[in-house]
Each structure stands twice: as structure tokens, then as C-alpha cells.
Amino acid sequence: MNIALWLARAGRSHPAAPAVGYGKRTVMDYGALALRAARIAGALRGSGLAPGERVAIAAKNHPEYLAILFGIWHAGLTAVPANAKLHGAELGYILEHSGARICFASKDLEGEIAAHAPNSLQRLVTIASREYETLLSAEPAPVEPRAGDDLAWVFYTSGTTGKPKGAMLTHRNLAWASHAYAAEVDTVAPGEAIVHAAPLSHGSGMYALPHVGRLGVNVVPESGAFEPEEIFSLFTHWTRPSMFAAPTMIKVCRGCAQSDRSLRRSPGANLRPRRKSDDDHLSLQARNRRPRSSALGRKARLRRPALRLRRGEGGRS
Which of 17, 79, 80, 101 can bridge 72 by disulfide, Cβ–Cβ 3.0-4.6 Å? Predict the structure, then answer.
């Protein structure tokens, strides 16, 4: 029941389908994304890690993020994504507490992580570095079989009320959460996009999984951050886009739209550009974590292509 099978199958069945966007460009199709994940898995296996061992990702959102995440699962290992906005000492605590043997890091975080790295960490790989490119030259590995109850993701809290705590999520947890997203939150059709302005190490990364399973496009803003003007520009470019957002991010988006003369606020908390065509509008649909009624969900989806902002928990976004 390895969750990595979703990407491996997509790479075989729809290799030319767009998989990863960077700004307004498609930078990887499903064939390329699946191959990169398989090569990363091959490199990780070649490093001597046993199935179930932990590999951390301490990185800002990056086009390579999903290749690394699925590569870890592909190798039968456990992913430990950590928020890149944490202090080096906090990241060091997560690395030690989780028992991570390898850590993939953003270039600007490498030095801070190295300064606080525990003895248990054997290797620190900077994303997009020469060392990282070497990993991508490894022989592609087959997907390592995993049981539904095998650990897949150690999901760390932000540590705002104490030391970060790791929630242990199995492959079955991730699969059912993804199925529940499609059944209770929103449907995903091939080619539809999710914009990752919030950290992929948190809820946005969880929302990436049903989009991979349904051949959606995972879009990373070129700024690598939450910039409202950039987000609105991406929403008008990609097909039926959605976004995981903390409540503060939703407020900023609404404030940005209300101050922009090209946008007006309409009933139902919709944000629309001043155009006649209904196909061009942007609507804001804020959701709590609890599923809404199916009738409400159907009503909200009548306005297409909708800009859907999924409301998540607070924390460091």
C-alpha cells in the first residue's frame, strides 16, 4: 500500500500530463516527476538506509519538493518534512527527535542546519546542488512494498506551545485522507491546479497527494513565498486553481482584492475581476477543517473556474 505507487502509476499511464508548475510554467510532467522520484529512491537505497528509516526535508517550497517526498516513500522510507521557517536549533531538535539519517535542505538553510545537526544525521544534501544532481543520476529503483500500517510521514507541529511534536501518519492514513479530500472537500480532475503558497511541509503538502492521485498540477510560486499579487496572477493562469491557506492568508487575499480596482467584492465572499465573462472570475471559498454538507459543496462548485482557498490551522505559514 505504498503511497508512492500513485506517482509511479501516473508516470506510466500519463507520462505527458503536467505535474509540477513553477510560476506560470510547467517544469515537470508525470513521466519526469516519477522518474526523478525513482532515481532519488535508488540513491537513498544505495546509501544503506533500511525500510522505515527517516529522511527529513527542511526546505522552502521548491519544484523538486514532491520528487524528494515521493522518492523517500518510493524507497520505503519515512518522510520527516520540517517547516523551513523554524530556527536552526528547532530544526536540529526535529532531526534528532525523529532520528533522521539524511536531510534534504534549501541552500539558504544548509549552514544553519549544519550548525545544529545531531550526531545521528549522516548526510545533509542541499537541493539543486551538485551533490543533489548526482543523486538524480542513480539507477531508478522499483517501489518498495509497504503495508498500510507502515509509517509514511512524521508530521511535526510548529512548537508554538512547547517543543515540536511528531504525529505519526501511516500510508493508510495518507491514502484515506486523500480519498476524504476528494469526497468531502473538493473533487480534483486531471489538469486542475493547486498553488502551494503555504509550506509543503504542512497542510499544503497533504493536499498535494490527492492532486497527484488525480493527475492534478502542483504549482510552486516563483517567489517561494506568499505574495498576494503573485497568487492572484497564478489563479488566473492555471485551470480551476485551489490553495491551502491559513486564516491570516485568506484575510490578506481578501484585503488585496478589495484594495485593487480591478477586483470587486460580490455576495458570498466572491472576489471577481471586472469582466463580463463568468469564466474569468475568481471566487474565494474559505473552508474550516470540518467537511461541509454535500449540497453546499455542490453549490460552491457551480462557479467555475473557482479560486478555492482551503482554510487550515494557524501556525507559521
Answer: 79
